[in-house]
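protien #1 (seq + structre)
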Amino acid sequence: MQWLALSFDELSVAQLYQVMQLRSRVFVVEQDCVYNDLDGKDTQAGVVHLLGFGDDGQLHAYLRALPHGVSYPQVSIGRIVVDPSMRGLELGKNLILQGIELCQTQWPHQDIKIGAQAHLKALYGAFGFEVDSPEYLEDGIPHVDMLLKR
């Protein structure tokens, strides 16, 4: 995998298209969830888009890292997604590790908060994230907030 960490302004038009296509394919179509993916956070100052490209040049994994104050008082990671054709290859775990490392580089010694789909609590827990809220519905999907303390 080739990992690129880019600000919104550094994304090429083709890269941005691939990001939007992957996020839409998974979060809107696969999860059958109509929601406003273009929430205005992608373009904010300090937000870093992490793109994982395969040897085939295709975008296989993505997340966005947000400075404190954008989604939560803490630094956060969101829109964590792996292409459905690449699942089962441990790419999601690698993506999460890359995201944590990115946050620690960008914002050293800062806690990281995520809004996780509830069924993924164990996955994120394996990286040290702890449940930090009661379960709640977001866009009709059960979620919990989780915090990785640094």
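ok now protien #2
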Amino acid sequence: MTDVQPRTDAEIQQDRPGTASSRRVVLMGAGAVGATAVLSACGTSTSGTNPNGTDFGDNPVPAGSTDAGDGGDAGGNTGGGSGNVLVATSKVAVGSGVILDEVVVTQPTEGNYKAFSNVCTHQGCKVSEIKDGQIICKCHNSLFSVKDGAPTSGPAVQPLAAVPIDVDGDNVVTAA
């Protein structure tokens, strides 16, 4: 009969380096990657212009919204002593509006133009669509009225900040 002597884990590890603890190392690495992913999803960058540090300005205008188009947010001066051109009045439909880089311009009723910040008052996302008389923030489904920027549904309780504008000829311009 053969005399069998049990070996310790340390002795086994010496014979096969890297195998005894490899499972533990893999599990620890997977846990670290998972924790990093969870924590990075909760973090915010401070490089943005919004209060929570995120910018959605690189997002295109979604389907169903109207882009400023040719008369868009060129930012050129009208030359008549007024502010910068935001959008041509012909691009802003009655009961709707357009979402620009920094503002939302609406026309609640014929010839009556309003402008609001395009930053949702709930958590600083930029609004993304205008539909059925509502300015929509898809981050958390807040809805705001095109008439006065007041919240009509969702978690937002504060209205969108009003932006002073004027109509100069065929253009909506920043108030001088």
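The CA atoms of residues 80 and 168 lie 8 Å apart.
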